[in-house]
């Protein structure tokens, strides 16, 4: 670790920084378009959601710069405290959290609201990097895999009790980091079976989750399938090049909360298959760049931090697009950098700052 600190190049990874800024600017532009109708109807201000997201993005960019200037080893050393704090925040949500649309996911901090599940993702990445980096025994045994996953169960249980989608993302991050640090492949067959059983238990624990499965299979039969159907209409009506930025019809109340997790359907309608494909390509480049940073990291901790951020991005992007296209049941996962959500964009940009810090200590 000390060797890693001495080899700080101080150079900003311009490729990663450029991709992040592209996504942030594109997200603000498409959010303004997708949310203008809802903002005008609810708050008499077409730019209501845009202005809040712009403030959060500015705050996130400041956090990204600050984090990128700090040695990432410092964050890894404080990972146990961050993980403990994430469990405390998640417990407070269950006890005194603000309920929106039937789910308790927010803590009120004066005039601001805070979603602890977003902090939990970053805390888990750092905690697993800290834990695996200090593993003295072999990382190829079943005991290592089991012990690592067991340490995640408390936060997965707390978050998953009212936010299954984020719990799945946290599990995905855990599996990826174990895979990166494990030279063997066969044990992951058993882990996959255990993960499937875990998800099955969570699905059957609440009736509304089983209802989502039924809606996914046949959305026309259920009133709650309206959002899925309208999203598919938006995707189909966009064609190859779309109606044009700002010209969506489905955002006019047909796709509920168009600025949130269904925003990809508005992108398809306004920018067409070409625009959606370019966005997916940029996400792919971002994940590739994070992979390059992980491979060139000076030490294991840096590689695990970058790989964890890459896994977080990959899982969330794939799940969101799969939900919008009705490939999987609706999970309520937002599209990184694009969907409306102040807490989300702040912590996403802070994660990018971590990756930039790792890249400045590369070989």
Describe the protein's architecture and organization.
With 363 residues, the protein is mostly helical. It contains 14 helices and 3 strands. A 3-stranded antiparallel β-sheet has the order 1-2-3, with helices on one face. A hairpin with a 2-residue loop joins strand 2 (103-109) and strand 3 (112-114). It is globular. The chain starts with a helix and ends with a helix. The model is unreliable at 1-6 (pLDDT under 50).
Helix content: 55-70%
Report Rg.
20 Å
Look at the structure and give the mean pLDDT.
Answer: 85
| DSSP E strands, number | 3
| Beta-strand fraction estimate | under 5%
Strand order of the largest sheet: 1-2-3
Unreliable segments of 5+ consecutive residues = 1-6
What's the tally of helices? 14
User: Which class of secondary structure composition applies to the elements?
Assistant: mainly alpha
Please describe the biggest sheet, giving its number of strands, its sense, and whether it closes into a barrel.
3 strands, antiparallel
The separation of the N and C termini measures: 13 Å
Q: Give the SSE order as H and E letters.
A: HHHHHEEEHHHHHHHHH
